[in-house]
Amino acid sequence: MLQNADQSMGRRYSGVGTRSLLLAICSALAASIAVEAATDSNTIWTSLNTTLTGRLRQSEPLARPCFPNFAGQPVPLDEAACAAVRTNYTTNLFRDAQPAGYMNPQSEMCLSDPADQCILDTTTNTTAPAGMPSPNATCGRGGVPSHYVEVQSASDVLAALDFARAHRDSDGVYLVVKNSGHDYMTRNNGGPGEGMEFHDCFVPDGCSGAETAGMRAMTVAAGESTGDAFAFAAAHDSLVLGGYSPTIALSGGWILGGGHGPLAPVYGLGADRVLQMRVVTPDGVERVATAYNEHADLFRALRGGGVGGAFGVVLEATHRLEAGPLPIAVASLKLPNDTPTDTVLEWIELQTQSSLRWGREGWGGHVAGLYLTHFNPLPAIANLSDTSAATASMREASDFVLAHGGTSAVEVLPDFLPAWNKYVVPGATKTAGNARFISSRLIPQDMFADEDGVQKIMSFLKSLPTDRWNPRNLYVPAATPFVAHTNGTYGRPLSTVETSAVHPAWYTSLWALSTAFTLPWNATYEERLDTFTWFTEVTQQQEILTGEKGGSYVNEANLFTQDWREAWWGSRENYERLLETKRKYDPQGLMNCWKCVGFEDADLVGERFRCQGKLQMAIDERIGRD
Ligand SMILES: Cc1cc2nc3c(=O)[nH]c(=O)nc-3n(C[C@H](O)[C@H](O)[C@H](O)COP(=O)(O)OP(=O)(O)OC[C@H]3O[C@@H](n4cnc5c(N)ncnc54)[C@H](O)[C@@H]3O)c2cc1C
Ligand SMILES: *[C@@H]1O[C@H](CO)[C@@H](O)[C@H](O)[C@H]1NC(C)=O
Ligand SMILES: *[C@@H]1O[C@H](CO)[C@@H](O)[C@H](O)[C@H]1NC(C)=O
Ligand SMILES: *[C@@H]1O[C@H](CO)[C@@H](O)[C@H](O)[C@H]1NC(C)=O
Ligand SMILES: *[C@@H]1O[C@H](CO)[C@@H](O)[C@H](O)[C@H]1NC(C)=O
Ligand SMILES: *[C@@H]1O[C@H](CO)[C@@H](O)[C@H](O)[C@H]1NC(C)=O
Ligand SMILES: *[C@@H]1O[C@H](CO)[C@@H](O)[C@H](O)[C@H]1NC(C)=O
Ligand SMILES: *[C@@H]1O[C@H](CO)[C@@H](O)[C@H](O)[C@H]1NC(C)=O
Predict the structure, then answer these.
(1) Is the whole model's pTM more than 0.85, yes or no?
(2) Is the CB of 53 under 6 A from ligand 3?
(3) Which of 267, 383, 485, 486 has most ligand 7 atoms within 8 Å of CB, for mutation?
């Protein structure tokens, strides 16, 4: 349960989940322990555990207690633990607190091998506990790592890196960074966990001061959640930018991939607002990286290219703050669930036509098939003493939902936290536990500027087969950076485009148009191949829709994207630049994950990526690639 204590003052968000930054160690050794009880292997783990002063743990899939066997061996059912897992299977905070808890269970599954997973059925009755597996069902490890390290300091990371270096080639040991487990693309499977510090006047390492003089900032350890960071900032009369989900790690994958949020149109991406990072690079050195010191190349690469720990394990990041309390206008419009498809499409078209104006006026948030949730911090709209500008700006959309039996709330709240607690948190507590996949595409602003562009977007949506995709489920973050016309008053204070590695299309786009589906928990291999082939064709159609002016969000992309280097980082040259930085800080290629910087086509075959590689090759064969 999320508790929004003291909501009247709007000062707190408190989740009960605790977690630390984890370094998962995946290893063929685990199998050899089970099968051969190889004493050598045990000695290896024991000595690592000693170095880590006992913070090495073994891990098993979340739902293992509900199965009478694990990895081919009979094991006892644990009824109490199983009941807790079943009851809380879709609860974000429950998963967040478990070492093997991922928001999206594709990280637990082996996508290419349906027999190798340990997943429960959440579909038969969504309000009841997840289904009990049949008595003869098998629990497979899937993508869940054998061991993990609870990272408390840089020295834990260094010890794990030493271990991986020593045992990678001989024993197939590799490391994976797992933080909150929000990754959609299986890049997290297989200490300074906590802590936040406020700075009145932060000067990044190596900075002479002029550019960031007097800048308010907060340093957030990698394991801290977005919700706790929002509360900490508010307690210091400040605002830190974050995404929607309270459990996302603010200094983890969110900034490493880009980081959009409802205030991005005015204040930029999470990656735009980071001033400094402390990171242990794979070459075994703890470094402080900023745009102004000798690790400017690393700092750039981390922000946009850093998912999967490609450039190292981030221990903490320092984020720029805005002064609070900051009045926020909110628009929360909803259509009834049973709205006919034609009306849903009309609603989507209305939003497509209005979205650029909303963005220019400072609004950002979600555009969707059955709702709209937008926030706006600009004073002309977020006027506490007069909501008429906010109401007028949203009038046409409000009138539409009201005319079709929906509800409309447009109001101005005194600060971001109460607005987010009221309009986002209640819908974000039980969204986990289903294998949801997203293919997003950044849509250029100029496509929204005229009716021709709007109709192209609508034609794309209408071309999606209704048996696979329902327009009611449309979900679009309208949260690209610096869309708002602020006359230079807000945003872009640093030379951000030049110093981060996110796809350049972020700065000329308006929507991250998402097509999503949920893979049934028990889909057969043929069903998986069929669905992901369709999905990858959709990704291609999205690319055609925008041409080269678009791009894809590395955090919310189709993991089977074929031209992923260009799609996620803009061009082969941009990718090569990242690769150069990768070779400098990770000369041995110690950190590797699925389609992270440094991933090679040769990695498609082989044990390490067997759960993704087999399907990828089969999809490529079906679609054909140039
Ligand atoms: C319900 C939900 C809502 C979301 N909403 C938004 C949103 O509003 N805006 C948005 O931009 N994105 C959103 N996302 C996507 C999210 O930002 C990404 O999945 C992000 O990568 C999550 O990072 P994490 O560290 O919390 O999760 P994890 O799955 O633990 O990590 C994600 C990736 O980052 C790497 N990583 C994490 N921590 C570190 C570290 N300290 N050092 C090095 N590598 C690390 C992991 O190895 C992994 O590859 C959402 C995702 C979900 C599931
Ligand atoms: C590591 O040591 C701790 C403390 O002795 C112990 O609780 C834990 O089980 C050990 N981990 C492994 C993987 O053996
Ligand atoms: C799991 O669900 C049960 C019953 O609803 C609840 O009492 C318990 O607190 C939950 N556990 C966690 C860790 O969320
Ligand atoms: C679903 O589960 C809930 C809670 O256990 C129960 O009240 C409800 O009757 C169930 N619905 C169906 C259709 O079985
Ligand atoms: C498991 O048991 C069910 C009936 O409970 C049966 O239909 C199914 O074939 C069995 N599966 C296996 C793999 O034995
Ligand atoms: C807010 O509204 C009041 C009352 O209409 C008006 O006087 C004031 O100028 C407005 N503030 C801004 C920033 O537009
Ligand atoms: C920016 O300037 C234009 C033209 O002067 C003005 O109409 C607009 O309201 C200004 N916007 C903001 C956010 O100040
Ligand atoms: C998967 O499970 C659902 C129940 O959730 C069932 O209706 C369906 O037949 C199963 N599919 C396969 C392929 O076993």
Answers:
(1) yes
(2) no
(3) 485
Domain 196-323 maps to which CATH number in 3.40.50.970, 3.20.20.140, 3.30.465.10, 3.30.420.280? 3.30.465.10
Do residues 623 and 558 make contact, with C-beta atoms less than 8 angstroms apart? Answer: no
399-428: pLDDT as tens digits: 999 999 999 999 999 999 999 999 999 999
Going from the Cα of 111 to the center of ligand 7, the distance in angstroms, rounded, reads 51
Domain 328-569 CATH class label: alpha beta
Indicate which atom in ligand 5 lies nearest the CA of residue 134.
5
Q: Which of 14, 44, 19 is nearest to 29 (CA)?
A: 44
Percent of the chain with pLDDT over 70: 89
Tell me the three state secondary structure of residue 150: strand
pLDDT tens by residue, 376-406: 999 999 999 999 999 999 999 999 999 999 9
Of 208 and 600, which is predicted with more confidence? 600
Ligand 4, residues at Cβ distance < 6 Å: 125, 127-128
Domain ranges of the chain: 19-176, 196-323, 328-569
- Pick the residue whose CA is nearest to atom 13 on ligand 2: 57
